[in-house]
């Protein structure tokens, strides 16, 4: 069998179709974008790689609420100071895990770059999560130190003797008043001068740089292992396909998540771009920030795009958006209808979107030009360095152009697996390194990827991942519930709502309101059940698996069981 690879010699013939990137010899799609400029040095940490990139930028990050700015020179000076304090005063060493628990803040990229420069490992937690949810993550990855805001730090009180560095000053709430052992503040660490020249450990690109937790289809979230090499490949993608110069990004997406963290807290540093960070999403606060900081690009998820459509008249009357040229959307695919509605309301703003997973480290597909964005309904062309296959989920047969199947991805940015979870790794990544995305897709004659449906059962509420199995397990602990199933219910505003089908015990008068309150007390806000239907039984196949598609069809057709 012929092996399809892009040739380094222009005189060599390539079996890859120039229009769609498909190779008949191995039924693989190859990226049509520029090759990845990966460094030859295998002993390279991602912080060093990012800091070595030349650019002409001046301001790295701006806090949208306070206007506080940090320049690139101050950022790198602070990274060195914090890294030195972590090593000398906190005893952080290569391989140690450091947790970040914070709303969006300009301190997040600073801490990440400092930790990873030591060969230590960054893990982030969703600040919306409850203390018990965070405790499970802490128990799984065993961080040696945590960076947290004063309002978030108490959630770590039940997580053992973990030491905490406060990322914000709060003189009234320190030490024992927070219920945790506070060992310093980030502002103090940034000011400390290194006492002596520290020799950096040589970090291999295969070593772990991050553990980002992704909700699985069957149960609780899993730690995705992200190596320095994965992150270097991710950053190199932006070097291969550079964004327009002199952009000012307004980031509304959470920085604990791969979409915000990898793209707008790390890659933009290598490019010299300015990122304005919105601490918490508020539609009018976002629009005011666009006007105040003359943002050129908005980074958001589809529900925010919908909110902009619905409030367009008031927004355009109140705010000067003449600086805004582009919207970059991710977290969930944009429908053709939403895209067309937005362009009708904001005709001078282009929409670019991307498709990726935590497991693919923001590599997947994207639209990166006005011409590409006109292919409405497509998530774009394959990212630099990415290979793809379309596989029939029932037969395993590899499909071709314009055929539907599960999207598989492969490349240097793809994770090697899940932390301490060999079973989940084998289910998701095969022996050849192909990542099974769980998404049904087709790739057309021009190489554009279309996401058609999800094989995975994750619910996307405002682009947050909600695993149905986790909610079902919680519901079944209720003394008046015999059986339960949770499905995604489509909603224009938020994408999908968690909806529960419930079988009550005989004689139970359990109400919709009390059930939703039962769940709300135990999970993060984005995981709350928003709709309930009481039924006599849950449809299942012979092996006992819930027939969610039947329930989804039932829910959306307004039928009753």
UniProtKB/TrEMBL annotation:
Signal peptide positions (record): none
Keywords recorded for this protein, A-Z: ATP-binding, Ligase, Magnesium, Membrane, Nucleotide-binding, Transmembrane, Transmembrane helix
UniProt protein name: Uncharacterized protein
Cofactor(s) needed for function: Mg(2+)
Keyword Transferase part of the UniProt annotation: no
Domain spans labelled AMP-binding enzyme C-terminal: 470-545
Xref: Pfam families: AMP-binding, AMP-binding_C
Lineage of source species: Eukaryota, Viridiplantae, Streptophyta, Embryophyta, Tracheophyta
Domain AMP-dependent synthetase/ligase per the UniProt entry, residue ranges: 53-419
GO cellular component, one term: peroxisome
InterPro entries for the chain: AMP-bd_C, AMP-bd_C_sf, AMP-binding_CS, AMP-dep_synth/lig_dom, ANL_N_sf
A molecular function (GO) term: CoA-ligase activity
Family assignment from sequence similarity: Belongs to the ATP-dependent AMP-binding enzyme family.
Residues that span the membrane, as ranges: 255-278
Top-level taxon in the UniProt lineage: Eukaryota
Organism: Brassica campestris (Field mustard)
């Amino acid at each position: 069998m012929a092996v399809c690879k892009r040739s380094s010699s222009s005189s060599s013939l390539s079996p890859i179709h120039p229009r769609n990137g498909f190779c008949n010899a191995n039924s693989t799609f190859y990226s049509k974008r520029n090759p990845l400029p990966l460094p030859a040095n295998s002993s390279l940490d991602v912080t060093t790689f990012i800091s070595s990139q030349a650019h002409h930028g001046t301001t790295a990050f701006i806090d949208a609420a306070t206007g506080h700015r940090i320049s690139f020179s101050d950022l790198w000076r602070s990274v060195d100071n914090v890294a030195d304090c972590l090593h000398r005063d906190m005893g952080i060493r290569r391989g140690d895990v450091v947790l970040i628990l914070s709303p969006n803040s300009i301190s997040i990229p600073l801490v990440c770059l400092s930790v990873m420069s030591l060969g230590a490992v960054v893990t982030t937690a969703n600040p919306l999560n409850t203390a018990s949810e965070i405790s499970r993550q802490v128990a799984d990855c065993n961080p040696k130190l945590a960076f947290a805001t004063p309002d978030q730090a108490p959630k770590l009180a039940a997580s053992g003797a973990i030491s905490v560095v406060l990322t914000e000053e709060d003189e009234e709430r320190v030490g024992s008043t927070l219920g945790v052992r506070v060992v310093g503040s980030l502002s103090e660490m940034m000011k400390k001068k290194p006492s002596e020249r520290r020799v950096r450990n040589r970090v291999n690109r295969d070593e772990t740089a991050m553990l980002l937790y992704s909700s699985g289809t069957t149960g609780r979230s899993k730690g995705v292992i992200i190596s320095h090499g994965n992150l270097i490949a991710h950053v190199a993608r932006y070097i291969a396909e550079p964004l327009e110069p002199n952009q000012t990004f307004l980031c509304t997406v959470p920085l604990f998540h791969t979409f915000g963290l990898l793209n707008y807290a790390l890659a933009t540093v290598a490019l010299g771009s300015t990122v304005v960070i919105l601490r918490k999403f508020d539609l009018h606060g976002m629009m005011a920030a666009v006007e105040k900081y003359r943002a050129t690009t908005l980074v958001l998820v589809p529900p925010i795009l919908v909110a902009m459509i619905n409030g367009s008249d008031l927004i355009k009357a109140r705010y000067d958006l003449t600086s805004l040229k582009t919207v970059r959307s991710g977290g969930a695919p944009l429908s053709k209808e939403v895209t067309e509605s937005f362009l009708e309301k904001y005709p001078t703003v282009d929409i670019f979107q991307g498709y990726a997973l935590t497991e693919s480290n923001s590599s997947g597909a994207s639209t990166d030009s006005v011409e590409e964005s006109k292919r409405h309904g497509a998530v774009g062309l394959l990212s630099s360095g990415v290979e793809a296959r379309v596989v029939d989920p029932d037969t395993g047969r590899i499909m071709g152009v314009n055929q539907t199947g599960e999207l598989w991805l492969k490349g240097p940015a793809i994770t090697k697996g899940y932390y301490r979870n060999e079973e989940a790794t084998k289910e998701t990544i095969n022996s050849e390194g192909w990542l099974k995305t769980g998404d049904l897709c087709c790739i057309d004659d021009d190489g554009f990827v279309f996401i058609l449906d999800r094989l995975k059962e994750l619910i996307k509420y405002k682009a947050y991942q909600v695993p149905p199995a986790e909610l079902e397990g919680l519901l079944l602990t209720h003394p008046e519930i015999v059986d339960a199933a949770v499905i995604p219910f489509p909603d224009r505003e938020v994408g999908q709502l968690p909806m529960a089908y419930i079988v009550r015990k005989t004689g139970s008068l359990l109400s919709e309101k009390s059930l939703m309150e039962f769940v709300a007390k135990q999970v993060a806000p984005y995981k709350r059940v928003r709709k309930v239907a009481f039924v006599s039984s849950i449809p299942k196949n012979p092996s006992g698996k819930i027939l969610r598609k039947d329930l989804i069809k039932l829910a959306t057709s307004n039928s009753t069981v």
